[in-house]
Design brief:
Layout lengths: L1 H24 L8 H34 L5 H13 L12 H4 L2 H9 L2 E5 L9 E6 L6 H7 L6 H4 L4 E6 L9 H7 L3 E2 L2 H9 L5 E6 L2 H5 L8 E2 L6 H9 L2 E8 L6 E2 L7 H13 L6 E4 L7 E2 L7 E5 L13 H22 L12 E2 L1
Parallel strand pairs: 1-11, 2-5, 2-7, 3-4, 3-5, 6-12
Antiparallel strand pairs: 7-11, 8-9, 9-10
């Protein structure tokens, strides 16, 4: 027995030596570097938001209808009952979640571009505010990251101020997407929602409105600096009626992350875009970014360009329940001049030329 064990041990020792020798002769496996892993996580975090915005509502709606024809129909029925019960919540301050706003995924989202929030003045928690965000871009990446999450530290930079990013009311009619948006403090951009946040929710609220809307998204071109603002005065009238201070916000680089196909004004393509915008509230844009695996190919991944969001100086607005058109025009002019001043002050710092100007439409 001892002889057999000794012989077997010798075989094992020989096999082990041969195995180690074979391992050493194998070519080394190239493991991805830490920077590459982080870059892929950043791409995943951005695409998660893009796909959520584009298809989450439709997919969840179809999925909910499908459940009614399966053994899980009770789950769908319970959710529909909850949806009916909870229907007015988005218009009554929503249901924000600090946990969701502080998800690690948003930090990867921020670092992909990267996105930065620049504070220029203090904001008093004893006041309410309306932020006018410019430009719209394709997906408002800067607006979402800065005001729909805590990735850039909004609460630390503006203590006592609670941001509410306003978006299309139609998004809050879609199952699950509505809850996802509300968790970030996002609300419908309609009069009922705005009035509630500025008059029934105390002070220290900042409603963020992308003033240019769908019309401005059609002018989103890299290197172009223009905003749709001349005839957009409803947010100024709302500020006067609620006594909320106006704050201009400009995101340098928002237009750079996608390339858009622009149709001639007299073309059928532009005509259909305008019609769709009037019917649905948003305009279909034909755009492209880069591919997931190659920046030289076309795809849905946005280009990695710096987005610097500058929050300007607040304009003190008195409360006037029934402002005249002259009063609305006066504060609208003050807002426009403040926005132009903000653009001119920071344009060179963020890579623009001294001769670049902000066009108003």
């Amino acid at each position: 027995m001892k002889t057999i064990i000794a012989a077997y041990s010798g075989v094992l020792r020989g096999t082990g030596a041969n195995f180690l020798s074979a391992i050493q002769d194998l070519p080394s496996v190239p493991w991805p570097s830490k920077s590459k892993v982080e870059k892929q996580l950043q791409v995943i975090s951005v695409m998660q938001w893009v796909l959520s915005f584009l298809v989450m509502g439709a997919v969840c709606t179809v999925g909910l209808l499908y459940l009614f024809f399966t053994d899980c129909w009770l789950i769908a029925a319970l959710y529909i009952a909850w949806l009916v019960f909870d229907w007015n919540t988005p218009r009554q301050g929503g249901r924000r979640s600090s946990w969701v706003r502080n998800w690690t995924v948003w930090k990867y989202f921020r670092d992909y571009f990267p996105i930065r929030l620049i504070k220029t003045h203090n904001l008093l928690p004893s006041r309410n505010y309306i932020f006018g965000y410019h430009p719209h871009g394709i997906f408002c990446f800067g607006a979402f990251c800065n005001f729909g999450t805590e990735a850039t530290g909004f609460s630390k930079k503006f203590p006592g101020i609670c941001p509410h990013l306003a978006t299309l009311a139609g998004n809050f009619r879609l199952p699950l997407l509505r809850d996802y948006l509300m968790s970030g403090g996002i609300c419908p951009v309609n009069r009922n929602s705005m009035d509630y946040l500025l008059s029934h929710n105390g002070t220290g609220n900042a409603v963020v409105i992308v003033v240019g809307g769908a019309a401005e998204s059609l002018e989103c071109i890299p290197g172009k600096h223009s905003v749709t603002l001349k005839n957009r005065k409803g947010f100024v009238k709302l500020a006067l009626q609620q006594g909320a201070d106006l704050v201009p916000v400009y995101s340098f680089g928002e237009n750079e992350v996608y390339k858009q196909i622009i149709f001639e004004e007299s073309s059928w393509g532009r005509y259909l875009q305008r019609k769709f915008q009037k019917l649905m509230g948003f305009a279909p844009c034909f755009f492209h970014g880069c591919g997931i695996f190659s920046t030289n190919s076309w795809g849905m991944v946005p280009y990695s360009k710096d987005i610097n969001t500058v929050v300007g100086e607040p304009i003190t607005v008195p409360k006037i329940e029934s402002p005249s058109q002259d009063e609305v025009d006066l504060y609208h002019d003050m807002y426009v001049q403040s926005l132009l001043k903000l653009f001119d002050r920071y344009k060179v710092k963020f890579g623009l030329l001294e001769t670049d100007t902000l066009a108003l439409h």
